[in-house]
User: Fold ABC transporter permease from Paenibacillus shunpengii.
Amino acid sequence: MQITRKHASVFNKKRGSPKTGVLKRNTKLIRNNPVLLIMMLPGIIYLIINNYLPMFGIFIAFKDINFAKGIWGSEWVGWSNFTYLFSSQDVLRITRNTILYNGAFIILGTTASITVAILLNEIKTKIFARFYQSVILLPYLISMVVIAYLVLAFLNEENGFINQSLLPLLGHDSVSWYTSPEYWPYILTFVHLWKIIGYSCIVYLAAILGIPHDLYESATLDGASKWKQIWSITLPMITPTIIVLFLLDVGRIFYSDFGLFFQVPLNSGALQPTTDVIDTYVYRGLMTFGDLGMSSAAGLYQSVVGFMLVVTMNGMVRRRNKDLALF
Assistant:
């Protein structure tokens, strides 16, 4: 029996369209869980104020801001702010530094965080496990300003620990760390990993703790070694978590930890060839010239490129396995 379009429409009206069914389910969910929705309100308000309302300021990137005329009264300049940003001689350097640093942070940070999470999972004594988790997490809770002075205590040319104690012990002369840019890619990478690993490994540790213990017991009965269990059970089971966090990190590959690149090198001009990134460059331009339009253009540039990278990487993951894609 062939169903005509007219019959189908009548049937859908009686049965209810899928959209109507979803709307009814959502309305019922809201009515049945008012307390949970009230608990969500602070997070939703924070998200709207800090993530969505600032999006209305995108048009500042296309204006020559004059505070006497106000933001709305300032003249439109089109792509002039972007032209000024990309015509700078430093744009290639700061873009290169930003991408290379964040690329290294993503790869090394993900590897180190997974490794630390696996090691913490192997600690069976609760007291020691909590102690090590607290010690590893502590650097993440320290302000970057404090960390900058901790680094200075090690690298100070006159009375730093490395110059005064370690290098003489190894038979080397003291090094002027804050005027030698070639060392800072390694220093900044080490400081970043030391600070972030304790926080990053929490998500992976939670994912590992969610793996059914029966899988490990079966593998042990089959004679699988600890390394074989990690490679065949742990890593495949936490792969979705790894991919989601990786995609989120890729989306921020054009953003940098401002405190890390500005506070830790103490804003030393001699170190800018290897420590200057997009965020610090824009900050210096804003503080020196007060060019709000160029700063907004740089922020929009970072956001658009980050969005494109997330969509591209998610599409690549989706081609391999739809279940592992972010959307």
Observations:
- The first strand starts at residue 63 and ends at 64.
- Confidence is low (pLDDT under 50) at residues 5-15.
